User: Fold these one by one.
Assistant:
Number 1:
Amino acid sequence: MHYPDSLEKLIQILKKLPGIGHKSAERFAFQMITWPETILTEMGEIIKNAKKNLNFCAECGALSDFNLCSLCDPTQREIKQMCIVATVKDVFLIEKTRQYHGLYHVLGGLLSPITGCTPDFLSIISLKNRIKKLPLEEVILAIDSTLEGDATALFLKKELKELGIQTSRLALGLPMGSSLDYIDGGTLATAFTGRSTW
């Protein structure tokens, strides 16, 4: 027996979420259809407006409700350090550790010949321009310890060398082949405090 079209469409949409297989999508869908109409309407509005209402900070590239985010506010952040990350989610993961209080710069991805992500697709030019303008003493590469992450880190090290800025990378407390997305807060905090010049 086939599910009604509306239920099947809901299941297919839920399967688009990362880590959600068919069984989980079915379970979520059957749960959602038992919710009151008001909750479903509110959920729909939140999803509909989430992307529309969020902005990428014009300075660092992090997510914000405004054109510039609070993470770029020199009165609230240590402007002698800049942490370079691959994605906007990485910013929030690092902030949760409460170990870092400097600025950020989001690359927008990692170098990957397989997917066609070349240096032109990353925000490297704006990164170098920011570094030249700021009184930085250290740039921290907080990038996944993967093949793509290592390639990106090596490329950045070479690019930033000419700017004469000290470059460090998170300590090797991060397991090889791991993504920041799956690292617990304690491991990430230790990696930050134990970073070494790179």
Number 2:
Amino acid sequence: MRNQIRDARRVVVKLGSNLFFDGAGQLALGRISSLTGDIARAHLAGRQVIVVSSGAVALGQNALKASQTKSSASSLVKKQALAAIGQSRLMNLYEREFAKCGITPAQVLLIEEDFSNKTRYLNLRNTLLTLLDMEVIPIINENDTVSTAELEVTDRSVSFGDNDQLSALVMSKLEAQVLILLSDVDGLYSGNPRENPDAQFIPEVREITPDVEALAGSKSARGRGGMSTKLQAARIAMNSGGMAIIANGMKEGVLARVLGGETEGTLFAAKSGSL
């Protein structure tokens, strides 16, 4: 199944917030350069790559050295403000890195209605397809400054509530063949490997059953998702006839290895799935 990934023409790559920082809380510029370099090489090789990127709130927080309070109502407004500060910094990182390869990125900020409203969805689809035809790399994020769906962690009733699910929707709606979810975990385990040294890595999942869902642990520190939302995203990808891979973006060259069909991360592919 992984060999088919080498031939996938259109892929969606989701980058989690934790990938942008090192253990000391500083921008991980080397890692960002490596990841964007892998994306650029895939693009230059003829693939159509769509990036769904978290990180705006975290970059805004980093810029102000601000702390976040998750419980108070004012913290939601604060996160929206931090997103406004961080989004330009996020795009500046992509613009600077892709410029090294002569590639132009495009910012696309979305809210729930861009998928649930037919007219807006068709406009969105046409724009994204046109960008791909123009050999531009779309950088998609939820518009956190006007939408609280992703920031409000108690509400998951809307079209998407985090960038994991957003990336899966983009993948399915644009008929991409592969969804690659990069975070700070190697993939799915039989338990939490940080707490249980006997936890076993699961290289492949052909069906997301209740038992598989039960393996999801808590969300990450900076990100608002976690393994649970990644499993939901993988289900969307599988139901659309494609594949999903959860892999560790902290590892050098991981994206190139995934796109090369190497055994990296956990592969999610339905038994009858094919590219």
Number 3:
Amino acid sequence: MTIDDVIRRIGKIGIVPVVRAATVEDATRAVEAICAGGIPVLEITMTVPNATSVIRHVVREYGSTALIGAGTVTTSEQANQCIAAGAEFLVSPGLSLPVLEVARACAKLAIPGALTPTELMHAQDNGVKLIKIFPCGNLGGPKYLQSLKGPFPDAVLIPTGGVNVSNAADYIAAGAFALGVGGDLVNASALRAGNLAEITQAARELVQAVHGARELAAALKC
């Protein structure tokens, strides 16, 4: 799968669920529930115990229908491990040039984090195609994203941190390419209790919110 293929698949659904779980079993159940809710894109963070084993297992089980990436990738060693496990994209909380170099050498998509205009410019200078704005919610949420899109209208941004179904439409209206969603989608208590239906329903509602916001944005442009 090419980098452009991965970008298209992320853009099509417009959501990147961030899966953090205490066990391999919980992570696998979270992936199952999210996919059932209509989001065939997942980011397994390196904070999950035995994360690379989880990525390998999830890719084996769901890789034919879902796009699996790795999150919280902060070193070149982690980047190599995740790609070897089958991750199609790497997400980082900040900008790591060694991670970008590994991704580039392996022809994989790297999505580094940025927050300030200076960090965003630095990412663009290093050829980054998608940029995670994190933690976006702490600096004003959709309004902050909109303020970034002013001087950077062509930047392809994925706000993460504080994103949920109630503000998803505002983020799309502000110019988000896709939304990074963590605990508000993968509810830790529901996961521990085995209540996968709650997570599946949350995924469905998020898909509907993004789809509706995109339709409205398209209508307003006409």
Number 4:
Amino acid sequence: MRKSLVFSLMLAVVAAAAPCFAEGWGTVTGKIVVKGDAPNPPELVAKGANVKDASVCAVNAIPDRSVVVGENGELANCFVYLYQRRGTPDIHPDLQKPAEPTVVFDQKGCEFFPRSLVVRTDQKVNVISNDACGHNVHTYPLKNSPHNLLVGANDTKGVELEYPQGELLPMQVKCDIHPWMTAYWMVVDHPYAIVTNEKGEFKIENVPEGEHTFRIWHERVGYIERGLDVEIKDGETVDVGTIEVDADDLEG
């Protein structure tokens, strides 16, 4: 009797430790476009301007990349991510670990690259610089501890940062030395987040079966969609269609 009880308890412990997977997995796709004439913001730094570290920062003009719109109004750099009020979603076995343990955040021509970055809580951000001048990287998270670090000229080894808690929305990243330098990072504790490409498209695969809420956020607009409800069915793709953003909302 005692052996049977011990064996049952062992099975219970193993079951509790085993990862829980959904029964099915699907895909979400969509596209974000601008309705109306998108703003065309002026350059942040003109070529040859008298700015800090002009020999690096003013060699070429620096455009305002807070609005990147294609020929047909396609809006890039929108964050699309699964939102849960509590807990984390089931994660597909293939996505239990990120494809890359580290994502690279670079500085070139006194701009941050990429402008919009998704990073998982189990990834590190390798902050490097390909510029011949120093920068600082100052992050403004809501839940994680902020970082404010100096990155020296031509430091391609860089510094690694970690963010162990998922954020509620993308956080701003600034260079205080060159104040026009801005980027946004979205820290998530799951793999179901992406940034729209130059065609305004997004595709999130292997989402667990069931009803989910997605959020769409852009740095000029804020929330484009705060509660996009999607029902995922096994083996199916849900196309949420074209989501429009009013051009006036991009004026900033």
